[in-house]
Each structure stands twice: as structure tokens, then as C-alpha cells.
């Protein structure tokens, strides 16, 4: 109070503060993305205590872009025999019980896969 003649303190040194884009910050950002390419830019920003915009600028300058994973279906040679076996079994079940297919749950492969249920909507990787 003696110095400023006010009870209100200065607003400087509150919050995160301004972090200049130093070579060390750039290196830390690239290291963070390199260690975990599936981290979001906001997670990197919080971990390193730098503005979100700095993280994006560094990634753009290094020509790193978020890529969304796309699932594709692929059959391998080992898949053919079980598929033929299943088709034969299914036809036998239909011959024995004509309404058998009404009791079977058919799903989209996007929801149920051999690897389990997955959500690729938010999955991204920086390359």
C-alpha cells in the first residue's frame, strides 16, 4: 500500500503468464508429440504450460498434421476356410429351422470387430 497507495495489487504475475517460443519450448513440444502422437494439442499445452496457439504454430512449422485413422476391412487367406465353414453351418441351420435367421443378430463391422468395440471419431495421430 505504501508503494502504490492502493489496496489493489498489480495484475502482473497472475495466471500462466506469457511464455516466449524458445528453442527449449519447441523441443519440448516436439518431444511430447513424438512420445505420444495421439495426445491432443491441448494436453501438450497443459503439460508444458504454454499457450495452445504456440503448440499449433510449432506443429505447423514442423509440417506435422493430425491424421484421423480410418478402419478398412481386409480378408486374409486364413479367413476363407472359417467363412466357408460358417456359411455351410448357417445353411444347415436354415434347413432345420426356417426362421433361424430371425434369431441372429447381424451387425455392422464398424461397431463390432475382432479387436472389440472402438470409436475412431476422436482418434488422431500427428505425422
UniProtKB/TrEMBL annotation:
Taxonomic placement: Eukaryota, Metazoa, Ecdysozoa, Arthropoda, Chelicerata
Protein name: Uncharacterized protein
Superkingdom: Eukaryota
Amino acid at each position: 500500500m505504501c508503494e502504490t497507495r492502493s489496496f489493489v495489487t498489480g495484475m502482473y504475475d497472475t495466471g500462466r503468464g506469457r511464455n516466449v517460443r524458445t528453442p527449449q519450448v519447441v523441443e519440448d513440444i516436439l518431444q511430447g508429440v513424438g512420445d505420444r502422437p495421439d495426445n491432443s494439442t491441448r494436453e501438450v499445452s497443459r503439460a508444458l504450460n504454454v499457450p495452445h496457439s504456440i503448440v499449433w504454430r510449432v506443429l505447423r512449422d514442423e509440417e506435422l498434421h493430425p491424421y484421423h485413422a480410418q478402419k478398412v476391412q481386409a480378408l486374409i487367406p486364413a479367413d476363407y476356410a472359417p467363412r466357408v465353414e460358417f456359411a455351410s453351418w448357417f445353411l444347415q441351420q436354415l434347413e432345420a429351422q426356417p426362421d433361424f435367421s430371425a434369431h441372429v443378430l447381424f451387425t455392422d463391422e464398424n461397431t463390432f470387430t475382432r479387436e472389440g468395440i472402438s470409436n475412431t471419431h476422436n482418434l488422431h495421430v500427428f505425422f
